[in-house]
């Protein structure tokens, strides 16, 4: 199964199903995802099940050779459940219980709701366990989506208390760890601890971080609750869940562990006002790299954009070639299966402008033809890449704990963990240097260069691991605010960067939040002239303690003190960047570091042309992706063997059309 | 009764009433509106009525020949009602019951409240039914004002269920119509259906449209509840209600039907930060045209601005001449009676900066003199215009259903039904071509040109009516997003513009929401040079199917495809505009269309000088309104006979002072 | 006691206390504030007291000669109180009860809470009454902080009713005073009156002003409740409270009356996005002048900024020299004692980025050295200034009632009472003319010039006082919107400026809110050329009635009418400014007025160099404060005798380093 589509037979008359199945087959579709929002249709009243319509749909598709992945529809409890047990509805930060009427109107800690799930999911799984056309399951849908403030109901409060008790054992331990002596917040029992409902000012930052961890663990536990049921009834089916890239309500590393593989929903064109994080080409690539990093193995795209997205507002329409381009990009970064969302634009409901491959009227048009052609081109060669991954010399450490800690205390209004991290990612991306996103549990030694941005919370085992990495010859980039706090979000009373000082070879005597304050740095470029560029958000004021300076501040009372340093430590090097860099000096810096680390870009390409590799047992495959709305021409090494896109080659050059793609094999 | 004023005798000592009455009479005032917020004074405790003060006030005014219109004070239930029945207080979208302390603190579905109204309004009506100075009634005040989110209490929920049951008869019918299979929202009984309280994400768009219709109908029904009482007790009195122009909580066409005539509150200078819709001269004219369109007959201005408006903040002060100008404008567009709001600036309460004709201190000043002079000038000639209406060749269809549908799904962040419509209105306004605003129930055949903007929701009878209109020689302008949905807000699975395709002669294969995307169009102007101008919000990508192109897109992959088309259909022409035009090409386009439709502007005037006609059985009267803060000079046709403003004529030219006005009669 | 520090021994291990005490002593610290947030540690469960740790801490500090001020910890009721009496938690404007988890989570009217306080504070006060190291008390902490919307619970509602009954005696009196006849808001008993919870629109402005006064009085009463306890137990201790400058939830004049002296928390660098009011040098000076004005005597700084401030976000770091500079500035404006906040940056809790003198790691660094040096320099000479105050010829009247009235009705979106007032302050500040901030109860006669900005609410005794002031030769500046309303926030029906008209010699026939309207004025400068400058917010249209015009409007229909007037009244002069001036004409105007009033600037200094005086029984001391990040050189009068900063003198010039300071004595 290499290409699929998300399909909602329950939205269409039965007689259309055959038409759809034939059109799918013609386009090369081999798998569908079904039923993930259809609880009401499968259990119209408590204990009365009707799977017959779904049996029929699966069979109709099966007749065309199309397999089915089923979703557990637990993101949409029907009204009769809510009517019976309104306590399932989630409560927001104001203490207001939300209403039925959308989706995700459920509290994930609620035991009554879990019992409804147990009854229903067990029945559903049992019913489909032996259906030969069913191959696997998706649990729920996009966990954490729609739960902006997380649920703050009494059930969650009790679950939070239990979670805290498991973590801290005694209330004294919690009091000491959180520093509740501040503002007289000392507790004498766990059940006194508030969930972070609105207070006259701010909650304790340690409580807030534990709340975010608890909420993440709750989702992991909620998934496990369903996984256990499905695995028991359907031991031969795979189980996955559809992630959402940089979405951060759940620690996806944790959520991944229980799954056979992870899936991801990739929407390059978003329907809301553009969010910086999502609106750049490098962010799309970074998203896919993060998803691959979850289990360091290939993954599915469970929802690959197939048209304009939209709820109340809409994205622009994907330009001709972009649906293909994005498909190639997903595969290039490690997807083995691409499932498009959705088959046909729905005629009703909140998502009627979340366009499918087919338009509302159902006749194949441009999007169908483009996807059909893309599948036709890729399907024969997918086996070559299968199981392969990009070959990366650079790792960037991604940490949900750091992300949450900066949400709780952003320091500067505009400081954002993910944007800071993407600043580094972008420099590698534009230099055509593949990157892996890694968790702190993964192996660092395979990377020539490791970037650990904003290592704000530190813990001894991670510090040791980094020390060992550098000792053994690794090159490490650390950035501002490293080593400030322990893992419980309280400050370590040491000179910064705390336990990282030895490998960084610096001391930070002071720091300056660039809140309405201007600062810039000077980089001694390889040419005759220096570059000076604005920096932002923060400035560490650094004293060298073994390290040497690579760049200097250019303004205010700490002018001419070091802003970027490098420290040779045993076999390796630690770089420290005391501020948030602008694009130009970031580029200079990464160029410098990459050379030092002996890392080679794949190829020089015109701006906007992404190039990356995917290396399987069959060889190393180079994907070339033109993200520009105009053709791009450039040289291709003589020894690269075209796999797709030979037609674009003229002599030793490739002439890619707008949004055009090609795949080569290197020797 | 041609001129009146809104008066609050209860705010002033009784001895002042005589002074006020005399000053009113001197200014030419013939009618007052009284008592619309004075429930507490008329019924200080349940069942104890005191109308004596009002009798006295009416008599004092009557002695000066001034008649009275009474308001039912149901927008301000007294505290003793709220204390007894707090369930009358409205509930907002968060589920929070609002507090007593302002006005409109009432739920319009609440039966207990309706009973209070029944008791009180019957007593009041009975008491005044034979008072010879009382001539009519205003029901409540500005329905829908202050109900931003509509009431979401349990009583409204029950009323909504009843409304839905009346509309859909069976729950299956509702489920099928709304497409509740989407996200498992299927209902098994009407009482399960939520009111749109906050959910984790979005409600079903069909539910939301029905909710808006229900809320509108509720207001119509609430009015009828009072109307029945008043009509029964006072069969010889007229009954009206004061509307608020483009305000859209109620379908004013529906609200109009039960009234003898409609009234309108006209405030050209608003106290809040300027709202685009209201801040332009053409919007003021459009507002009046919409009000005239309600019953296609003359109306009252029940509140004509008489000074700076203000609550917590204030508008600027109307410039000398503007109060007169706005009075002329109201009459020009169809008002037969002008009632100024208010007599004297109040000394207390929320509206103490909503300035009256008299200032706080009560001595006549500039505003009193200006209004007195205006009345003196107009009063003798009002009879000539009476009952007359503007003579318009152009109709613009206004639809509350479309407005609501675009509120629910604006498509593009800045797309707004009324602003889009006003883009067309403005082009006619600036060309001095009178326009009627029409509902879809009114006769189209009287117009040479009909503009139907954003005909998003379509219904067969309206489609047929438009087809017949064009067939019989009408010229029709349709715009983007036409024919997308049925009247229940779900998508029609047809190639766009759906059932309108035959008369438009086009097919829309794709569309592009201009969300962060640039687009422009090229108009082949009559000169040698083309005009290219930015468009916004949306671009339909059009294939000609009989039509010909008038303008073309100028950017991106659909460059050079049609953006505006014209299609000769039987005896008429359909124009289709696939995007939202800028000012320049809108002007070119309307100029082109107007010529084709053989429509003549009244006269060329300098920018900022409005000219329109009002045609009664006595002849056609031309109103000239200089909205500019400077004099304007221009030619007047030799055969126009001055009615007002002869003093401004010099030879064949008129020299209007700043904000000056004149009226002519044509032969 | 001249220098102190806020210290939290409970945040640090006991063994550190000795180290801290020694470091404090070395730095010259003589007093600490302790325990103001430590209820939970002193009363871990109801009725069980543990003051032993605090005894120990006090003794440890006492051994180094450091005295203690104790805070009553009533801003942080422990969780066991909230658990037992959740009704103590405050309720916001939506009617939502806030949660435990921050601080100030208490309703100040709640009797149950007051009983808890009575029990605890009595025990605490009794325990420490005879401790020789304890010298005084701070009641609670920063009253009003964190109570953005004030508490709207049932207890506050009842207290509000009682307050209203005390004020108005009868409900008829209240109805008449508030004008409740408007919108039928007439009450028949006090207990019907709402607290200003959210309504469909706006509450009565008189109710809103009384609500703000009630809330202020409630805080005064809450302080008195504690004061009585402390004074009874500790008759020999002083009692103070830490104010927050222009913070306006409480009328600080009222709050001051019950205190021995007031204290103030001075934070020149704020952690939130810059607020105009706070971000200018002149605002810092104005804040201090307001604090001095409370009791017209010296005060304490209870929290003087000692490092970057921060909660979730941070301020920049104070530049080298700024901590010293701000210390000098506080003393220059009347502080006798400077207590720095805080000793050491906390390792946990909401304020871990509110940096202390010591950094998190506890080793003395730059900030410690700077403060130590500052204390070393100042300590020997503090006795000279002690008890002295600046000698000011100018008074600016500050009124909480006016501030509240403009919050309720700002008239123009951007009109703000304090910013308007600071416009005048700034002109004097930049001209090096010292200013006193005075309440309307204080003596005006000592000032050559009195500025009364926005005297919106007027009352007969104040009007008389001002009339007498001018009659007797005083120069008075009045500004727009004077004399509009009575003290109960309803309009006085007189020609403006109402009762102030006689002394102003003008009549205001109209006014124009500059809401989206442009206006400017022309000042006839002493040179050949006029100045024209934009004005904003408001324009009074003035008719001279004895006064003469100093400046004229330059736009629109009231062009060339007076904008600023002066009126010779008996022995004095009244100026009236009918608009909000820009910087340039404000400067011209103040320069003109100052000359007329025969007021001398202390000295001409470069921009950014503040100069002011503090005059004690020992003489007149001149403080020079360089707020610029660069050195400034200028002449010093030959007869000024250096007290501090002699090293900066070169011949007759002073060469101040960046942020440098000096003190001179004049003869």
UniProtKB/TrEMBL annotation, chains A, B, C:
GO molecular function: beta-galactosidase activity; metal ion binding
Binding site for Zn(2+): 107, 151, 153, 156
Active-site residues per Swiss-Prot or TrEMBL entry: 142, 303
EC class: hydrolase
Limits of the Beta-galactosidase trimerisation domain: 393-599
Enzyme Commission identifier(s): 3.2.1.23
Pfam families: Glyco_hydro_42, Glyco_hydro_42C, Glyco_hydro_42M
Protein name per its UniProtKB record: Beta-galactosidase
Species assigned in the record: Ruminiclostridium papyrosolvens DSM 2782
